[in-house]
Task: inverse folding
């Protein structure tokens, strides 16, 4: 195994990046200590400081580390925004369709709803209830969609299954866009209100079968009409978000902000995302 004092290896930019990402960053994340300084890495590995600096900047751009001037580089915990950004890129390359997303969502969320009915804690129930109330009282498509994605994400987290909740996070921004498209149809918004309440009631009652069935019905009842998943609605999503958050909005940050509203005591506020 390569160590942080290995000067015999011929380092390239890629090999150094892999070493820092897969060996140094996980150790720093576990200990909460900073990654060794540019100077320390340069001396221990026998590489130039400029190469170390370049690689660290690349890791920072990817969200793996945070460089604090005068203190060093610290490992960051991956968040749902970074996961969703990566998944969006992968699925775009594979040319996935909205129908693919709906099918995957149905399979995933019927299971998370059923597990949430078995496992949700009182704090989970309270957070889901808040998101549902906020959805029903929200003004504007973007605010409705933000509360809606939170409602579904909180149910996924209430499943107490880290794999399933992480899978949901990975498609959360794409679902957020789909929700805006669906909510643009006022009839869809109001027809889905009863099914959301049915999902919540089944979770509160601890009825896993009813929760899964209600979630499947909810997803079916809130999908855009056939033929509505086109470029016109892509422009609609962009226009709605621009009016609400400004022209410089970052989709992943909007969704991350929405999720943190219910799950963090100190939600991150970025720019005009309030």
Result:
């Amino acid at each position: 195994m390569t160590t942080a004092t290995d000067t015999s290896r011929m380092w390239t930019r890629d090999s150094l990046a892999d070493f820092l990402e897969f060996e140094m960053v996980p150790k720093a994340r576990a200990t909460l200590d900073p990654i060794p300084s540019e100077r320390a890495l340069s001396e221990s590995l026998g590489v130039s400081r400029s190469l170390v600096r370049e690689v660290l900047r690349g890791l920072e751009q990817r969200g793996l580390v945070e460089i604090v001037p005068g203190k060093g580089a610290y490992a960051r915990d991956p968040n749902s925004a970074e996961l969703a950004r990566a998944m969006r890129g992968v699925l775009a390359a594979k040319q996935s369709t909205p129908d693919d997303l709906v099918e995957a969502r149905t399979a995933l969320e019927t299971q998370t709803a059923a597990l949430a009915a078995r496992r949700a804690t009182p704090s989970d129930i309270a957070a889901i209830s808040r998101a549902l109330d906020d959805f029903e009282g929200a003004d504007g498509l973007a605010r409705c969609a933000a509360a809606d994605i939170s409602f579904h994400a909180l149910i996924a987290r209430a499943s107490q299954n880290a794999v399933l909740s992480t899978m949901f996070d990975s498609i959360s921004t794409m679902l957020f866009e789909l929700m805006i498209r669906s909510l643009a149809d006022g009839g869809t918004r109001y027809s889905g209100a009863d099914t959301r309440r049915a999902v919540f009631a089944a979770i509160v009652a601890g009825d896993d079968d009813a929760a899964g069935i209600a979630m499947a019905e909810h997803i079916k009842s809130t999908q855009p009409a056939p033929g509505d998943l086109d470029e016109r609605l892509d422009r609609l999503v962009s226009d709605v978000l621009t009016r609400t958050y400004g022209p410089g909005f970052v989709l992943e940050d909007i969704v991350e902000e929405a999720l943190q509203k219910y799950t963090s005591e100190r939600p991150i506020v970025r720019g005009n995302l309030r």
About this structure: Residues 265-274 have pLDDT under 50 and may be disordered. The chain has 13 helices and two strands. The first strand starts at residue 65 and ends at 68.
